[in-house]
């Protein structure tokens, strides 16, 4: 398979961990006879410094023409006092909008050997492995009117969804469930909200198209509780924008380290964008100690969702787990009796595992 991948390193540790993802993808290409070509473009602070804008047109055009995009992270103290149109984060929001990335997928896994890193009890977290599919471009964060009225005595926000917006995110979730254990939990507030009633109707309608997927509906308040009392009950969770925002942050405590969390942002037929959940980590940037796992696991998601290369994606995930199992870890993690390594060595260990398995 031949694919063109745009790399957007961004700032801080983004520049370091993107190299790790590229090394891992090169190893996968070699082992499976694929051809991946890479093109690097600027975003965020790096783009501000070079071109005076956080999102140059050349970057947007390159992303639109690519088969997939990998993004490191943006931001840093250097640009913190810039006016808002010259903030690095504008680049990130801009590219999500330009590529119509309506589906945000965040896999959350309690990695063996890291279970003690979670504030939750090890026996609760053990075996948890779930995927949150969040609608990213609709709902209450985008609805209008959103304003104050009556001299500030009344305030209104609007939760609006079109049928098409719900159908496309629900389809993505069903497809993701087919690629996993085939269990989908749809989270809503259908006992109160009209938008949730339609959400639930659409999930029920879609079921017929995906007979191999088992569907369950859970109200969001109950889901919030079950996520941390019984996380192993879940596989794929699909929900609207605000519920997904809250539940995905809640669920991230299952892993205990930002350096392990990957994400995918997908559009309908266009290009997907893959990035770690963490930021540019200015406190450790340039030291060669950043955990590359979140970025590498994001590259695995790219193989799975943009290129349908499931075996290759799974091999990368197994490689990360295996290296942790052997006790190797970066400075952000702690494994009792393990050995601490830097970004490059962690990457090399993951690459070596990939080469030894295929
Ligand atoms: P951060 O995620 O960059 O760092 C939080 C803490 O976690 C730091 O102590 C950092 O050293 C550590 N950390 C994060 N990723 C790590 C990794 N891979 N390996 C080892 N340690 C890691 O969040 P923070 O400090 O709030 O923000 C720093 C900058 O990043 C800000 O400019 C912020 O706006 C930006 N940011 C960008 C994001 C993005 O590009 N998607 C997301 C979050 C923040
Ligand atoms: Mg959030």
TrEMBL record:
<keyword id="KW-0464">Manganese</keyword>
<feature type="binding site">
    <location>
        <position position="221"/>
    </location>
    <ligand>
        <name>substrate</name>
    </ligand>
</feature>
<keyword id="KW-0560">Oxidoreductase</keyword>
<keyword id="KW-0028">Amino-acid biosynthesis</keyword>
<comment type="pathway">
    <text>Amino-acid biosynthesis; L-leucine biosynthesis; L-leucine from 3-methyl-2-oxobutanoate: step 3/4.</text>
</comment>
<feature type="binding site">
    <location>
        <position position="245"/>
    </location>
    <ligand>
        <name>Mg(2+)</name>
    </ligand>
</feature>
<comment type="function">
    <text>Catalyzes the oxidation of 3-carboxy-2-hydroxy-4-methylpentanoate (3-isopropylmalate) to 3-carboxy-4-methyl-2-oxopentanoate. The product decarboxylates to 4-methyl-2 oxopentanoate.</text>
</comment>
<keyword id="KW-0432">Leucine biosynthesis</keyword>
<dbReference type="InterPro" id="IPR004429">
    <property type="entry name" value="Isopropylmalate_DH"/>
</dbReference>
<feature type="binding site">
    <location>
        <position position="249"/>
    </location>
    <ligand>
        <name>Mg(2+)</name>
    </ligand>
</feature>
<dbReference type="InterPro" id="IPR019818">
    <property type="entry name" value="IsoCit/isopropylmalate_DH_CS"/>
</dbReference>
<keyword id="KW-0479">Metal-binding</keyword>
<keyword id="KW-0520">NAD</keyword>
<comment type="similarity">
    <text>Belongs to the isocitrate and isopropylmalate dehydrogenases family. LeuB type 1 subfamily.</text>
</comment>
<dbReference type="InterPro" id="IPR024084">
    <property type="entry name" value="IsoPropMal-DH-like_dom"/>
</dbReference>
<feature type="binding site">
    <location>
        <position position="106"/>
    </location>
    <ligand>
        <name>substrate</name>
    </ligand>
</feature>
<keyword id="KW-0100">Branched-chain amino acid biosynthesis</keyword>
<dbReference type="GO" id="GO:0003862">
    <property type="term" value="F:3-isopropylmalate dehydrogenase activity"/>
</dbReference>
<feature type="site" description="Important for catalysis">
    <location>
        <position position="141"/>
    </location>
</feature>
<comment type="subunit">
    <text>Homodimer.</text>
</comment>
<feature type="binding site">
    <location>
        <begin position="279"/>
        <end position="291"/>
    </location>
    <ligand>
        <name>NAD(+)</name>
    </ligand>
</feature>
<feature type="site" description="Important for catalysis">
    <location>
        <position position="189"/>
    </location>
</feature>
<keyword id="KW-0460">Magnesium</keyword>
<feature type="binding site">
    <location>
        <position position="96"/>
    </location>
    <ligand>
        <name>substrate</name>
    </ligand>
</feature>
<feature type="binding site">
    <location>
        <begin position="76"/>
        <end position="89"/>
    </location>
    <ligand>
        <name>NAD(+)</name>
    </ligand>
</feature>
<feature type="domain" description="Isopropylmalate dehydrogenase-like">
    <location>
        <begin position="4"/>
        <end position="350"/>
    </location>
</feature>
<protein>
    <recommendedName>
        <fullName>3-isopropylmalate dehydrogenase</fullName>
        <ecNumber>1.1.1.85</ecNumber>
    </recommendedName>
</protein>
<feature type="binding site">
    <location>
        <position position="134"/>
    </location>
    <ligand>
        <name>substrate</name>
    </ligand>
</feature>
<keyword id="KW-0963">Cytoplasm</keyword>
<dbReference type="Pfam" id="PF00180">
    <property type="entry name" value="Iso_dh"/>
</dbReference>
<feature type="binding site">
    <location>
        <position position="221"/>
    </location>
    <ligand>
        <name>Mg(2+)</name>
    </ligand>
</feature>
């Amino acid at each position: 398979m031949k694919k063109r991948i745009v790399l957007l390193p961004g700032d801080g540790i983004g520049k370091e961990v993107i190299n790790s993802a590229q090394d891992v993808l090169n190893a996968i290409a070699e082992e499976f006879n694929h051809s991946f070509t890479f093109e690097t473009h600027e975003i965020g602070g790096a783009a501000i410094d070079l071109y005076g804008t956080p999102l140059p047109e050349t970057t947007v055009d390159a992303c639109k023409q690519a088969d997939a995009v990998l993004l490191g992270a943006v931001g840093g103290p250097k640009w913190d006092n810039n006016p808002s149109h010259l903030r690095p984060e504008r680049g990130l929001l801009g590219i999500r909008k330009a590529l119509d990335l309506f589906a945000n997928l965040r896999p959350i896994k309690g990695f063996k050997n890291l279970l003690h890193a979670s504030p939750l009890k090890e026996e609760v977290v053990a075996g948890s492995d779930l995927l949150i599919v969040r609608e990213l471009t609709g709902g209450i964060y985008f609805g209008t009117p959103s304003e104050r009225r009556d001299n500030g005595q009344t305030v209104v926000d609007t939760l609006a969804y079109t049928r098409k917006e719900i159908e496309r995110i629900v389809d993505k979730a069903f497809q993701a469930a087919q690629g996993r254990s085939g269990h989908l939990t749809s989270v809503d507030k259908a006992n109160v909200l009209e938008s949730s009633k339609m959400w639930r109707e659409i999930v029920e309608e879609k079921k017929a198209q995906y007979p191999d997927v088992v569907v369950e509906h859970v109200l969001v308040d109950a889901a919030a509780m079950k996520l941390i009392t019984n996380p192993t009950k879940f596989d794929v969770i699909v929900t609207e924008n605000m519920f997904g925002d809250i539940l995905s942050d809640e669920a991230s405590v299952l892993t205990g380290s930002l350096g392990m969390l990957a994400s995918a942002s997908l559009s309908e037929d266009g290009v997907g964008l893959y990035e770690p959940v963490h930021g540019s980590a200015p406190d450790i940037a340039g030291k060669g100690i950043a955990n590359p796992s979140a970025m590498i696991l994001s590259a695995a998601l790219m193989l799975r969702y943009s290129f349908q290369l499931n075996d290759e994606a799974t091999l990368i995930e197994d490689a990360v787990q295996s290296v942790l199992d052997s006790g190797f870890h970066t400075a952000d993690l702690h494994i009792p009796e393990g050995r601490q390594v830097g970004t490059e060595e962690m990457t090399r260990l993951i690459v070596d595992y990939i080469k030894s398995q295929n």
